[in-house]
TrEMBL record:
Its main location: cytoplasm. Its EC number is 2.1.1.-. One of its GO terms (cellular component) is cytoplasm. It catalyses: L-lysyl-[protein] + 3 S-adenosyl-L-methionine = N(6),N(6),N(6)-trimethyl-L-lysyl-[protein] + 3 S-adenosyl-L-homocysteine + 3 H(+). S-adenosyl-L-methionine binds at T138, G162, D184, N231. One of its GO terms (molecular function) is protein methyltransferase activity. Belongs to the methyltransferase superfamily. PrmA family. Pfam families: PrmA (PF06325). Keywords: Cytoplasm, Methyltransferase, Ribonucleoprotein, Ribosomal protein, S-adenosyl-L-methionine, Transferase. This is Ribosomal protein L11 methyltransferase. The gene is prmA. It comes from the Bacteria. One of its GO terms (biological process) is methylation.
C-alpha cells in the first residue's frame, strides 16, 4: 500500500493529447475516460494522473497552461487530492480486462485464465508506457494489423515508431515472425518495451531502440521497411512524413494513429505529398487510424 495523490481535470477530446503530454513526467500513471453519461459534462474527457508524492503545483499549473494554449481552450479547472493508502497499481491493472481484437488477444499479467485458442496472446500491462490496447488508437492499429495479416508472405521487415509498450511490435512479430524494430524517444518506454519483449518470448525478433524519430542512423540502416507502425500524435506524424516515406518499401504500408478525426486531412495530405495513397480508415469515436500505401509492387 502506498500514499497516492490524484490530479483530475475535464477537457474536450481535441485537448487530450496535449494534456497527456503536459502531464508526462509529473505523474506515475495516467488514465483518460470519455464521459458518456447525460449531463453538462457529457462529451468531455476526464484525465486522471496518479502519483506517489505530492505534485509540484507550480510545474503542474505551468504545464497545463501551455497545453491549454496549444489546444486553444480555456485553462481547465484542476483538482489535486490526497487519497487514502491503497494498492492503486493493482487496482488499475485489474480495471483492464483481456481484449480480443481480431487475431490478437491482449491481456495484463494479472489475468490467470488461459487465452482463447487460435489467437496471438500478448501480455502487456497498463503501466508507465502507453499502449495496453484499451485506447481507441491502439485498438485501431491492431484492427489494421489484423486486416493486413490476411496478406500472404508479408511483410519481411517492420518498424514500430513511438512504440510505447511495444504492443504493436509484439503483434507484428508474433504473427509474421519477422524482424521488428521498436523505437521510442522516451527511455522509460524503451525499458518497458524491452521488458515486454522478454515477457512474451519475442526478444529474438523485436529490437528496442531509443531515438528521436528517425534521427538515429540505426533506424534507417539495413534497408527499407515493408510496414511502419506509428501511433503517436498528429503533429509528429505530419513532421515525419518525409523520412517515413523515404524508408517505406515500394508497395509498403504505414499505419498512422494517435490523431483525431478532425486532424485526418492534415495528416493524409502530408503523406500524399510524399507519394502515398490512402488505403483504409478506422474511425473509433473521435479517433482515427489510417493505412496508407506507397505506390509500387510489394
Amino acid at each position: 500500500m502506498t500514499e497516492t495523490w490524484r490530479i483530475e481535470l475535464l477537457v474536450p477530446a481535441a485537448a487530450v493529447p496535449m494534456v497527456e503530454a503536459a502531464l508526462d513526467g509529473l505523474t506515475d500513471a495516467l488514465l483518460c475516460f470519455e464521459i458518456e453519461a447525460p449531463g453538462p459534462d457529457q462529451g468531455l474527457w476526464r484525465v486522471e494522473g496518479l502519483c506517489e508524492r505530492p505534485p509540484d503545483r507550480a510545474r503542474l499549473t505551468a504545464a497545463l497552461a501551455l497545453a491549454a494554449r496549444a489546444a486553444n481552450i480555456a485553462e481547465p479547472a484542476v483538482s489535486v487530492e490526497r487519497m487514502a493508502p491503497r494498492d492503486w497499481l493493482t487496482e488499475t491493472m485489474a480495471g483492464f480486462p483481456p481484449l480480443d481484437i481480431g487475431r490478437f488477444h491482449v491481456r495484463g499479467s494479472h489475468v490467470s485464465d488461459p487465452p482463447p485458442p487460435g489467437r496471438h496472446a500478448l501480455v502487456v500491462d497498463a503501466a508507465t508506457a502507453f499502449g495496453s490496447g484499451e485506447h481507441a488508437t491502439t485498438r485501431g492499429c491492431l484492427m489494421a494489423l489484423d486486416d493486413l495479416a490476411r496478406r500472404p508472405r508479408w511483410p519481411r521487415r517492420v518498424l514500430d515508431m513511438g512504440c510505447g509498450t511495444a504492443v504493436l511490435a509484439l503483434a507484428a512479430a508474433a504473427h509474421w515472425r519477422c524482424p521488428v524494430l521498436a523505437v521510442d524517444n522516451d527511455a522509460e518506454a524503451v525499458r518497458v518495451a524491452r521488458h515486454n519483449t522478454r515477457r512474451n518470448g519475442l526478444s529474438a525478433r523485436v529490437r528496442c531502440l531509443r531515438s528521436d524519430g528517425f534521427r538515429d542512423a540505426r533506424v534507417t540502416a539495413g534497408g527499407s521497411y515493408d510496414l511502419i507502425l506509428a501511433n503517436i500524435l498528429a503533429r509528429p506524424l505530419t513532421a515525419m512524413s518525409a523520412p517515413a516515406a523515404a524508408v517505406l518499401a515500394p508497395g509498403g504500408r504505414i499505419v498512422l494513429s494517435g490523431l483525431l478525426a478532425t486532424q485526418e486531412a492534415r495528416v493524409v495530405n502530408a503523406y500524399r505529398r510524399q507519394g502515398l495513397a490512402l488505403e483504409r480508415r478506422y474511425p473509433i469515436a473521435e479517433w482515427m487510424t489510417l493505412v496508407m500505401r506507397r505506390r509500387g509492387r510489394a
